[in-house]
Amino acid sequence: MLTKPMDGANHSVVSEFVFLGLTNSWEIQLLLFVFSSSFYMASMMGNSLIMLTVTSDPHLHSPMYFLLANLSFIDMGFSSIFSPKMLYDLFRKRKVISFRGCIAQIFFIHIIGGVEVVLLIAMAFDRYVAICKPLHYQTIMSPRTCIFFIVAAWMIGLIHSTVQLAFVVNLPFCGPNVLDSFYCDLTRFIKLACVDTYQLEFMVTANSGFISVGSFFILIISYIIIILTVQKHSSVGSSKALSTLSAHITVVVLFFGPLMFFYIWPFPSTHLDKFLAIFDAVLTPFLNPVIYTFRNHEMRVAMRRVCRQLVSYRKSPK
What we know:
The chain has ten helices and five strands, in the order E-E-E-H-H-E-H-H-H-E-H-H-H-H-H. It has helices at about 25-55, 65-90, 100-130, 135-140, 145-165, 185-190, 200-230, 235-265, 270-295, 295-315; strands at about 1-5, 10-15, 15-20, 95-100, 180.
């Protein structure tokens, strides 16, 4: 939709954007709806259960589980940015989003993405201290340190998102207004501006790409150091540590894999981009609680305990 002329010029201001969506096939749309809605609900329930378990079980009041609960909260937010709008649009003939709605979606995507990057680094640091410096763990990973990580994560996420949008929010948009996607992707959004945006596209891609690749390699190197340290011991505790580390590494690969493809892969593919975007928005928030639950005996026991308490509470007479 185009509105009034802009400053007397022959162009008009774009007030909304049109998504091309995922597919025009009714059968595939129905399959995507069932698939996405099921995993969205499962991820919301799974992450909510993790947060409830960590909050209510005194045995889980430790830095690792505190950070895990915050990661679950972030996963719920990240999935909610994409899934409800995508599910709503699947059966709409005209898939639209307002200009402000598009800006808000981009803003929250980059805030939550930045927060999750810092949280994953904090969780890696927590495991490094627990395994490599166990005698100093309580001192280093104090409640103050945990709060610092959370505050720093949100501040960095906010700064990252604000800086990204500061360069694009005032760009002139006069048409076309069609995005070949199911959400507002910053790189595609910029390309619709009525001015040359090559340098801006390069800056945005380089910024997000550098953060993704840099953070990924920092995490992988830290986990390699931890694994080498663990291998020097042959106790039951070391096998438990390896199991926990494998869960962390799996989550890191699932999170950073699509990000690095979006910003670094030199041969863009719309269909592959959409597949990875769905994977990142729907599957990853579901897989994170599954991975941490199945790989952590203490978490499994605590979750069963909480579920029993909830069931007994509902059955008890009021």
